[in-house]
From TrEMBL:
Residues 49-127 form the Expansin-like EG45 domain. This is EXPANSIN-B3. The keyword Signal applies. It comes from Salix purpurea (Purple osier willow). Residues 141-224 form the Expansin-like CBD domain. SUPFAM superfamilies: Barwin-like endoglucanases, PHL pollen allergen. GO terms for biological process: anatomical structure morphogenesis. InterPro entries: Expansin/allergen_DPBB_dom (IPR007112), Expansin_CBD (IPR007117), Expansin_CBD_sf (IPR036749), RlpA-like_sf (IPR036908). Keywords: Signal. Residues 1-24 form the signal peptide. PROSITE patterns: EXPANSIN_CBD (PS50843), EXPANSIN_EG45 (PS50842).
Length: 230
C-alpha cells in the first residue's frame, strides 16, 4: 500500500520539458516512466490490507487514490511514497487519471496505461503526526505502533523511545511497513524520537512535544503535537 501517490498523465509537450529537467544534476524531481494497471475486481477503494501496516486507514488516504507498488516500497521505508515499477491502483485511483468521465471510461477499458511519476510531498492539512498503537501490543511487555500523517517527502529511518526521567533510550525495530515495535519498552511517559532522512542522506532527529502516555493502550491514537513540512 503506497498512500498519497499522486500520478500524472503527461502530454508530449510536458514530457519534453521534463526531459530537460532530467538532465539537471539532481533527479529527485524527475519523472520516471512506468505503467499502471488496476485491480479489475477491486472495491472502488481497493483493499484494506497492505504491507505498510496502515490497515483500513490506508484505503482512505488521499481520498482513496492509492496504489500498490513493489520496488520503491523498499521493505517499508517507502511507505507513503511511490514505486519505480508498475503500479497497481485501486479502480477509483485509476479512473481518476482521466480528466473527464469519458476519459476515465476509456482508461478503464485500456486496463494498462503508460504513466510517468515522481515522488511528491505528502500533505495532511490540519493534522499532526499521530501514533496509532497496534492492536497486537501488550502493555507493558510489547509495544507496536504505526506512524500516521507524516507530511513531506522524507523517510523515517529510525525511531527511538526515551524515558523522560533518566533519558534512557531504546531503538525500535521496523517490523514491517510503517510499523515500529519493541519488546520490553521503556517505562513511564515516553518521549518519541524519529530520524528523518532525505534523498541526499541528510538526517534529522525530530522530537515531538507530546509524550506517549505512561499507560498507553492497544488501539489508541496519540497526537505527537508536531508536523514536518519537508
Ligand atoms: C498539533 O499540535 C499542536 C501542539 O503542538 C496543537 O496545538 C494542535 O492543536 C495540533 N493540531 C491538531 C490538528 O491536532
Amino acid at each position: 500500500m503506497a498512500p498519497s501517490l499522486r500520478f500524472l498523465l503527461l502530454l508530449p509537450a510536458t514530457f519534453f520539458f521534463m526531459q530537460t529537467l532530467a538532465e539537471a544534476a539532481t533527479c529527485s524531481d524527475c519523472f520516471i516512466q512506468s505503467q499502471a494497471a488496476y485491480y479489475p475486481n477491486s472495491d472502488e477503494y481497493g483493499t484494506d490490507t497492505g504491507r505498510c501496516g496502515y490497515g483500513s486507514f490506508g484505503a482512505t488516504l488521499n481520498g482513496g487514490d492509492v496504489a500498490a507498488v513493489s520496488a520503491l516500497y523498499r521493505d517499508g521505508v517507502g511507505c507513503g511514497s511511490s514505486g519505480n515499477t508498475d503500479f497497481i491502483l485501486s479502480r477509483r485511483a485509476f479512473s481518476r487519471m482521466g480528466q473527464t468521465t469519458d476519459a476515465a471510461a476509456s482508461l478503464l477499458a485500456l486496463g494498462v496505461v503508460d504513466i510517468e511519476y515522481r515522488r511528491v510531498s505528502c500533505s495532511y492539512p490540519y493534522k499532526n503526526i499521530t501514533i496509532k498503537i497496534d492492536q497486537n501490543s501488550n502493555y507493558p511487555y510489547y509495544l507496536a505502533f504505526v506512524i500516521w500523517h507524516q507530511q513531506g517527502r522524507r523517510d523515517i529511518t529510525a525511531v527511538q523511545l526515551c524515558e523522560t526521567q533518566n533519558f534512557a533510550c531504546k531503538l525500535l525495530d521496523r517490523s514491517y511497513g510503517a510499523v515500529w515495535t519493541t519488546t520490553s519498552p521503556p517505562s513511564g511517559p515516553l518521549s518519541l524520537r524519529m530520524l528523518f532522512s532525505d534523498e541526499n542522506g541528510d538526517e534529522t532527529w525530530v522530537v515531538p512535544v507530546n509524550n506517549i502516555p505512561q499507560d498507553w493502550k492497544a488501539g489508541e491514537t496519540y497526537d505527537t503535537g508536531v508536523q514536518v513540512n519537508s
